Amino acid sequence: MKKFRNIIFIITGIIFIREFYFALIYLYNICLTRSNKFPMMKLLNVKRETKIVLDDFEEEKEKIRKWLKNTLVKGLKIKTFDKTILFAEWFINRGHKWVIVLHGYGANGRLMYYVARRFYKKGYNVLVPDLRGHGISGGTYVGMGWYDRLDVIKWIKKIRKIDKNAEIVLYGVSMGATTALMASGEKLPKNVKCIISDCAFTSAYDVFKYQLKNTKRVPSIPFVFMMNILCKIKNGYSLKQASAIKQIKKNKLPIFFIHGANDEFVPTYMVFELYKNANCEKELMLVNNAGHIVSEMVERKIYWRRISLFLQKYC
To answer: Is 228 among the domain residues?
Structure first.
């Protein structure tokens, strides 16, 4: 009888380990590879934000279409440290002001046209890259801002070759904002003047831990711990290593932090952690009634007025 129980115990353990492994690989694939992000979006509750974005797109699409028709655009590409080829669109304007507009997780550069158009109207040359693992850029995995920070530095060098007198702003939303903050911890050329960060997360580990816990469908602790290890093995970086908090402690550039007061995807408390740890000139704007990545759409006039005032000081 005891032997029989031991056999059952072993079989149960093997089945549990097998199911855990397949669940882990599934989570890794939908979270950190180039795969379609719809399963991840379905796992999380972003219905309200999706409706706001889609409604806004309907209102803005004609303005964007006319802008694209009347704006000179050039495609650019770079080769990264790991030989990945990345692509970007350069919306050509007069003068030496530049902005690099960085999209969020699971998105692409085209989804940032609504931001690019407004910076262009302010007189900026606008560079809109597809981050690694997104859009038409190469890469089989998502960098979560960590390797992307090095890619941004490559784009900065590309701009300096085009315009040695360039004055560059880094602007990003969500993972793009985190990318800009992570880049700020590296040695950047004096051409980079300031950063605008909209709904950045503190670290990749923190945001995945929060999201998995918030779904109430996945036990976050073992899964995020194992994903951290798996990411290190497969991609060469760990989720804990991908920390905006650690990077901004080394930054001296001015930062404008923006966050939705009702953000449940990248929780609002993260912007307070980032703001507290930033040892630089800084500003903070919380947007009431705004969830993730929709602050600009909820309070468009105030959003751009505050950005304009910030840019008048630094670029």
So the answer is: no
